[in-house]
Write the structure tokens for this entry.
Amino acid sequence: MPFFDKKEEECETGLDYWLYTLKYMEQLKTIPFKGQKALFERLEKLAKIVNLNKKERMEYEECLKVYRDNQNTWDYAIEKGYQEGVEKGLEDGLKKGMEQGLEQGLEQGLERGLEQGLFQGVRQVALNMKRKGMEVSAIMECTGLDAGTIAEL
């Protein structure tokens, strides 16, 4: 860097801007070429922090600490709220799912029970008809059962 001797207005490339800024950083109150790149703005902020006196630096550090604490608290609250929301959503979803499952299970159970009960009732009627000596064709016509089922009775 001792051989870099360009003036601010002579800098043409990004490298020239960097070298100029780095060489004269301690003497600059603000960084030149501000419009060139966002990196220079970041560098300017860092240079301002470095050039603060002890009291200003302590105040800056305290403000930064408060900002980071607040940001972390906010981030934690958002994360915690999200987790609680997911848990509550799962709990509610499971509860509703269980209720629907029970309803459907009861309905299907009743239907199957009725079907089984009716089928057993029809079989009992067919058996009674068979014991009375009725013909298989008449029993088939009355009960809707097939000849094989009636033969098994």
